[in-house]
Amino acid sequence: MKKDKGAEARNWFLQARSEFEDARDLEKRKRFYLSLFLYQQATEKALKAFLFFKGEEELFTHSVKDLVDIAVAYDRDFENVKFAKDLDRYYIPTRYPNGLAGNVPAEFFDSPEECETAQKSARSVINLVEKKIKKVISWPYHHGGR
Q1: Predicted TM-score of the model (pTM)
Q2: Which CATH number characterizes residue 114's domain?
Q3: Phi/psi zone of residue 74: left (φ > 0), alpha (ψ -120 to 50 degrees), beta?
Q4: Nearest CA among 56, 55, 125 for reference residue 86
């Protein structure tokens, strides 16, 4: 049975938005390594929401760059958020000590400015996706052509 693409997109987008807010809370607490990871995750999930909305069924990448490239094929407006690819650098090293050649993520990622830049990138993508899929993320979402 085929998934309802609107419901799937909505679920992914709502999770993206929640993770973005969690990242902001962690940033305020100076837990930058977790915040950076969640900005990457929120961006990834927002892009996947858009792609599911467009009819993609399986996406086997976690790369923001790859997801933006796929999104551009559907909508050229995503050219304007290609800079968000920089968030990919936070996918592994923010979580694993062996991803930083002898450093601990909780100690290594200590820059509020770096976090602020990541937040702006994530926000740009999330805002664009929200604009593109607005009809399925408004509550309540009615699927099935009602």
Answers
A1: 0.92
A2: 1.20.120.330
A3: alpha
A4: 125
